[in-house]
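Entry type: protein chain
Record version: 2
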Amino acid sequence: MDFSQLIITRRSIRKFTQETISDDDIKKLKVAALCAPTSKNCKSWQYAFVTNKDKIKALAAAKEAGSEFLSEAPLAIVVMADTTKTDVWVEDCSIAATFIQLQAQDLGLGSCWAQMRLRKDASGNMASYNIKNLLNLPADFDVLCVIGIGHPDQQRRPYEEEKLPWDNIRDIK
């Protein structure tokens, strides 16, 4: 599919089949992640590709709400950064997360981003702290999001061009 079609058809998918993701597709997702641009080419982003079901369930519980869908994903990708490398790590990781989700769509996989940065669990602990403890990450790392990826078990309609929020764009000539 061409890029324009990819953009229109990519929607957040929160329900997945239990079919595993092939090693070849996981490698393509890794390549996409590593090709994402970073400020001054500092490569601040870091990733954890998690297929262990127990760890995925723990990632889903890292914050109080909005990440439950992760528990059924066959793959969870933690998008994080070494915060000592740049002060724009959030932007670097956001671009990388988008690359990952577009690659997933191109492979026929569904994906959804679960925000973790600045989010807390029911006890008031930071989600990033919970994830760093779960995965034994260095203290200088911070977590932006966890992306759940799998074979879609729901259908979402493509965006309709005429229904896009065109008022959000200002043409300055």
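Comment: Strands lie at 45-50, 75-82, 110-115, 141-150.
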